[in-house]
Amino acid sequence: MAGAGGRAPLGLRRWLSSPAPAPRVCVVGSGPAGFYTAQHILKHHGGALVDIYEKLPVPFGLVRFGVAPDHPEVKNVINTFTQTARSERCAYYGNVTVGRDVTVPELQQAYHAVVLSYGAEDNRVLGIPGENLPGVYTARAFVGWYNGLPENRDLKPDLSCETALILGHGNVALDIARILLSPLQLLRKTDITDSSLAALACSKVKRVWLVGRRGPLQVAFTIKELREMINLPGARPVLDPADFTGLESAVRDAPRPRKRLTELMIKTALEKPVEMQAAAAAGAAAPREWGLKFQRSPQEVLPSADGRRARGIRMALTCLEGSGDSAKAVPTGAVEELECGLVLSSIGYRSLPLDPAVPFDSQHGVIPNSSGRVQGVPGLYCSGWVKRGPTGVIITTMNDSFDTAQSVLEDLQGGVLDTSPPREGFGLVESILRSRGVRPVSFSDWEKIDAAEVARGKAAGKPREKIVDPVEMLQIIGH
Amino acid sequence: MAHSILGLLRPLRRGLNGSKIRLIFLCGVTEQHHSPAKCWSERGFSSTQGFQDGPEESSSKDQVTVHFINRDGERLTTTAKEGESLLEVVVNHNLAIDGFGACEGTLACSTCHLIFDKDTFQKLDAISDEELDMLDLAYGLTDTSRLGCQVCVKKWMDGLTVRVPMDVSDMRKQLEVGKQSKQ
Ligand SMILES: Cc1cc2nc3c(=O)[nH]c(=O)nc-3n(C[C@H](O)[C@H](O)[C@H](O)COP(=O)(O)OP(=O)(O)OC[C@H]3O[C@@H](n4cnc5c(N)ncnc54)[C@H](O)[C@@H]3O)c2cc1C
Ligand SMILES: NC(=O)c1ccc[n+]([C@@H]2O[C@H](COP(=O)([O-])OP(=O)(O)OC[C@H]3O[C@@H](n4cnc5c(N)ncnc54)[C@H](OP(=O)(O)O)[C@@H]3O)[C@@H](O)[C@H]2O)c1
Ligand code: FES
C-alpha cells in the first residue's frame, strides 16, 4: 500500500491533485449492491466515473421486484439511488445483459475496474419428487408475479384451494403468507400489479401453514415481520404452545434479537384469541388463519388421484442435533402428510455464474472473493448477494457494498489498479452493443417509464401501476 | 412527493455533484405504514409538520449542541433545534455519515443506529416495541443503542455526544491502520 499521508487517505483532496486520468469503474446490476457500491466510490473519489449496467430496462433490482408492495417505506432507498444515478459522474445503462450482450472481458477492456453486483436470480430447489407438479411454485416466481417482474408476469398461480403451505421460515415466506392473507383493501393501495390483485380477489386460500425443518429457535425471519403477521387484520395466528415448551428459559441468556423473537412467538402461542372467538360466536365469516409448523422436512409433494396436480405434501419429522443456529435437523423416521392444494417453496434464492471468465463457487453460489476482490482476477470485484450469498436485508447489503467500494478505492490509491492508460468506458461498450443490435435504456428513459407508471397508478389510487411487459416499456421511450 | 425529499436532497448536499440546495425537510410525511418520530418541542410544534428555516434562523434558546463521533473517530459537532429528530439533525446539517437514514425515518432500515452513553440513554423517552424490533437488526447493537430517527432533541441534551457504530469496511480500515502502524 502506498503510504498516504494525512488522516483521510481516501479523501477527495488527494484525488483532486492526482494527475492520472479519471478512473472508469463499471458496476453490473442496479440493485442495492450496485447502487451502494457506486455511491461509495463516487463519494470518496472525487474524479471516478461510474457506469451501471442492468439487464432489465428498469433499475433497483429486488427493491422493485422483491420488497413487498405493502412495505413502501423500505423502497425509500430508491430516492438516494436516484440521486446517485443523476450525478454527473454516474450513468445508467438498462436493457443490457452482461454475459450475453457484452462479456465481462469486454467490460474489463473498457473500464479500469468492474464490480459484479448482479444478485441472485435463481432459487434453491428442494430436490424431492413432485416438486414440479402444477400447484407448486417457487417463492421467487410468486414474488416476481405479484411484483410485476417481467419473467413471472404469466405465472397465474392457482389459488382455488383453501390451504396453502409455504416451505421455509424466512422473511420471504412471511411476505408471501401476508400477501395471501391480507385484506384486499390494504393491498389495493399498494403498487401490487393489477392482475395479481384481481387473482387475489378470487383467491379461496384461507389457511396458510409455514413449515420449517428445524425448531422455533432456528427460524430465519425477523421480529418486525412476525409482529406484522400477528397483527394482520382478519387473520388469526395458530401456534401450538407445545412447540415452545421450555424455550423461555432456553433464550433467557440468548442475544436480544433471538430472545425477543422467541418471546413473541411464545406469547402469541399462549394468548387466547378472544376477539376471534367472539367474532366466530357472533357468526362472523370464518376468519383466515396461519400457523407455524416446526421440525418437518419436505419429502414428497403428493399428486392428486389423476396425477395432474399437487394435493398435499409428505414431511419427515425431525429431531435436532446440536443447538442454536448450527443445530441440524435429522429425520426421526416418522412421517406426516398434510393436505394442501398450493405449495410454495421459500427455501432461498441462488446466484448463477455470469461469464466463463469469472470464477464461481457453485457449492456456495457465490463468486469467491476477499473483501470483494474476486479471487485471481485483478480489477474484478463483487458486492451484494452474489458476493455474500442470498441472505441479508438492505443494510447488510449496504455494508458489504461499502466494503467492496473500499477495496476498489484502496486499489486505485495503492496503484494496484493501473489507471494511467485511459479507458474508453461506455464509448467502447456502445459500439459493441450497437454491433449486436442492443439499445440501452438511460436513466432519463427510466424516468419516463416511471412517470408513466405513476400516472397509471394515480387513477386507481395506487402509488404506481407497474408496466410488466418490457416491450411496452421500450415503446414508452420510443425504442 | 414529500416523503422523498430527504432522500433526494441528502446526496446532493453531500456534494455528489456539488450543488448547494437549501433543504426543505418534511419529516415522516405519513404513508399508512410509516412510523415517523413524533417529536414535540416545548412550544408544541411537531417536526412532522416540517420547517423551512435553517438553524441559524432560530433563536439561540432553542439551540442544542450535539456531537456525533463518526465511524472513523472524527467528531462532528452541530447545533440542533429542539424538537428535531437526530436523523433530521444529520440530514439538515449535511453531516457526512455514510448511508445514514436509508428509509428516511420510517422505521424500516436501522441505518440511523446511534450509541449513547449510559446516563443519557436512561434519560431518553421509552423505546417502542417497533423501534426495538428494528434495532434488533442493527449492526453492532449495544445495550445503549437507539435509532436516530426516533430520538428527538430536547433542551437538556445540550452537549450530547452520540457514537455512530462501525460497519464492516470501517473495521477493516481500522485493522489496516493498526497493521500499518505496527510496521
Ligand atoms: C422477496 C424479497 C423481499 C425482500 N424484502 C426486503 C425488505 O423488506 N427489507 C430489506 O431490508 N431487505 C429485503 N430483502 C433483501 C434485499 O432485497 C437484498 O438484501 C438486496 O436486494 C440484495 O441486493 P443485490 O443488489 O445484491 O441484488 P438484487 O437486488 O437482486 O440486484 C441485482 C440486479 O442485477 C441485475 N442483473 C442480474 N443479472 C444481470 C446481468 N447478467 N447483467 C446485468 N444486470 C444483471 C438484476 O436484474 C438486478 O437488478 C428482500 C429480498 C427478497 C428476495
Ligand atoms: N422484510 C424484510 O426485511 C425481508 C423480507 C424478505 C426477505 N428479506 C431478507 O432476504 C433474505 C432472503 O430471505 P429468504 O426467506 O429467501 O431466505 P432465508 O432467510 O435464508 O430463509 C430460508 C428458509 O428456508 C429454509 N430452508 C433452506 N433449505 C431448505 C430445505 N432444503 N428444506 C427445507 N427448508 C429449507 C431455511 O431453513 P434452515 O434454517 O433450516 O436452513 C430457512 O428457514 C433474508 O436475509 C431475509 O431476511 C427481508
Ligand atoms: S432511518 Fe430507517 S430506521 Fe431510522
Automatic annotation (TrEMBL), chain A:
Binding site for FAD: A33, E54, L62, V98, W385, G392, V393, I394
Boundaries of every FAD/NAD(P)-binding domain copy: 24-180
Family as reported in the entry's similarity comment: Belongs to the ferredoxin--NADP reductase type 1 family.
Reactions catalysed: 2 reduced [adrenodoxin] + NADP(+) + H(+) = 2 oxidized [adrenodoxin] + NADPH
Main location: mitochondrion
Molecular function per GO: oxidoreductase activity
Organism from which the protein derives: Cyanoderma ruficeps (rufous-capped babbler)
Binding residues annotated for NADP(+), in chain numbering: H169, G170, N171, V172, R213, R214, E225, G392
EC id: 1.18.1.6
Protein name in UniProt: NADPH:adrenodoxin oxidoreductase, mitochondrial
InterPro entries registered for this protein in UniProt: FAD/NAD-bd_sf, FAD/NAD-binding_dom, Ferredox_Rdtase, Ferredox_Rdtase_adrenod
BP GO terms, sorted: cholesterol metabolic process
Pathway participation: Steroid metabolism; cholesterol metabolism
Keyword terms of this UniProt record: Electron transport, FAD, Flavoprotein, Mitochondrion, NADP, Oxidoreductase, Transit peptide, Transport
Enzyme class: oxidoreductase
Cell compartments where the protein resides: Mitochondrion
GO cellular component, one term: mitochondrion
Source species taxonomy: Eukaryota, Metazoa, Chordata, Craniata, Vertebrata
TrEMBL record, chain B:
Cited Pfam families: Fer2
TM region(s), chain numbering: none
Keyword Transferase: no
Every 2Fe-2S ferredoxin-type domain range: 64-168
Domain of life of the organism encoding this protein: Eukaryota
Cofactor(s) of this protein: [2Fe-2S] cluster
Gene3D superfamilies in UniProt: 3.10.20.30
A molecular function (GO) term: electron transfer activity
Swiss-Prot/TrEMBL keywords: 2Fe-2S, Electron transport, Iron, Iron-sulfur, Metal-binding, Mitochondrion, Transport
Any Gene Ontology CC annotation: mitochondrial matrix
InterPro entries: 2Fe-2S_ferredoxin-like_sf, 2Fe-2S_ferredoxin-type, Adrenodoxin-like, Adrenodoxin_Fe-S_BS, Beta-grasp_dom_sf
Compartments, as annotated in UniProt: Mitochondrion matrix
One of the protein's GO biological processes: P450-containing electron transport chain
Family listed: Belongs to the adrenodoxin/putidaredoxin family.
Protein name per Swiss-Prot or TrEMBL: 2Fe-2S ferredoxin-type domain-containing protein
Originating organism: Cyanoderma ruficeps (rufous-capped babbler)
